[in-house]
Amino acid sequence: MKGKFVLAQTASAGDPAVNSEKARALARRAWEAFQPDVLVFPEMFMSYFPFGTERETVLAAAQPLDGPFVTQMRALARQYGMWLVFGMTEAPEDPAERRSRNTVVVLDAQGALAAAYRKTHLYDAFGYRESEAVKPGERLFDPIETPFGKLGLLTCYELRFPEVARDQRGKGADVLLLPTAWAAGKLKAAQLHTLVAARALENGVYVLACNQCGPDTSGESLAADPMGVPLAAAGEGEALLLVCTDTERVQEVRALVPSYDQRRPELY
Length: 268
Known about the structure:
Blueprint: E1 2-9, H1 16-34, E2 38-40, H2 55-61, H3 68-80, E3 83-90, E4 101-107, E5 113-118, E6 144-146, E7 149-153, H4 162-170, E8 175-180, H5 188-203, E9 206-211, E10 222-224, E11 230-233, E12 239-246, H6 247-256
Parallel strand pairs: 1-2, 2-3, 7-8, 8-9
Antiparallel strand pairs: 1-12, 3-4, 4-5, 6-7, 9-10, 10-11
Helix pairs in contact: 1-3
């Protein structure tokens, strides 16, 4: 099964209405240029705020899964007949809860909600404390069957945990989607490239990372094939990045490098 993915590297605003308009413009451009099966947006695409933003500001922009932003994105998926994947700030279920959720939504080509994943491993590193404002999810993603292979999902910082990608591989994923808001900083872009290639190679999967770009994030979205070979990479600015996948390549690499099947978990 072959898939045509477009990674929409962009800089989101704090206002969901602004980002909804941006989504429409990017979807139109992607469709006219590539007619993709899947259009992927970054982590926190619905409303992005720099670290340190007042919690009340972030919570005021948060929305539920049946809110206006997701509803508009569902209509956009139906309009073009393509899958959409995007990050959002999900409103707390309990009004007394002061932490939102960092959620990635997957919509199918008919605009139906195929999946929603709440980030489980939060970015408490490099001087940041995501857990102060975000409530972690309680379970890893369950990969979903699609016409272009089985899709797994992880979010940004989770790339640094080999166990998360290995869990997705163990559940049969062929392609791992990685919406990110990868923070800029010394060696950060190099780390992103290294980790994407490593997760792809050690699991025999495609890894597609779609990043925010702007003053706080590094851009440089990229994709690696199941052998860890770079397929495409963006620069620091806004870009649409085409990535083509093929599950035959997945099987070919796994037959050549069967390291997943050669594990000895009784020793670990």
